[in-house]
Amino acid sequence: MSLEGSQAPEFELETTNGATVSLSETLADGPTVVSINRGHWCSFCAEQIATFSRVYEDLQFNHDVDVLPVVTSDDADVAAMKERFDYRFPLLADPDGAVAEQYSGTEQTDLGGVTGISAIYVVDEDGEVVFEHVAEDLTDRVYGNYIRYFVADEYGGALEDPGF
């Protein structure tokens, strides 16, 4: 099920800094990137989140874009992940996979129990999903720099057919 072109599901989760954040709260300030991650144990997820951490200030200060990395693990494991990799933004714990299920879905794994299927969503100020990438396998990723250019290009407008 694709969410692109539809309203993003609302959610509210606790962050690694102890606050509670909701999607609608972040959309009040501008677009939001929602990143669904398999779990604290996923090295591919850690790498992908790191790429968003590196471009976070540019997204936040030049484009009013917030980043909400949702990790399908419990609070303590997600906090340890943030500390270990020194990300520049808080992570959000989704221990039962409820948010992941609304977005890209979940699956049962031998190692991690319920895990979210990795995905990236760009949600515009009106709450519409304007970009979606759901991983086809563990290594299939979209990185922060691509999303930074996508947002700077007003959601890929320059990539549209010029009509020659």
Uncertain stretches of 5 or more adjacent residues: none
CATH topology heading: Glutaredoxin
Overall 3D geometry? globular
**Class computed from helices, strands and strand pairing:** alpha/beta
Span from first to last CA? 34 Å
What proportion strand?
Answer: 15-25%
Strand order of the largest sheet: 5-4-3-8-9
Do you know the CATH architecture?
3-Layer(aba) Sandwich
Profile the largest sheet. Answer: 5 strands, mixed
Radius of gyration: 15 Å
- Going by CATH, what is the homologous superfamily? Glutaredoxin
Secondary structure tally, helices: 5
Mean pLDDT: 91
Structural commentary:
With 164 residues, this protein is α/β, with parallel strands linked by helices. The chain has helices at 23-27, 43-63, 75-85, 98-103, 144-152; strands at 12-14, 20-22, 32-37, 66-71, 92-93, 106-109, 113-116, 119-123, 129-134. It has one domain: Glutaredoxin, CATH 3.40.30.10. The protein is 32% helix and 24% strand. The protein has a 5-stranded mixed sheet with strand order 5-4-3-8-9. A two-stranded antiparallel ribbon has the order 1-2. Strands 6-7 form a two-stranded antiparallel ribbon. Helix 2 links the parallel strand 3 (32-37) and strand 4. Helix 2 (43-63) runs parallel beside helix 5 (144-152). The termini are far apart.
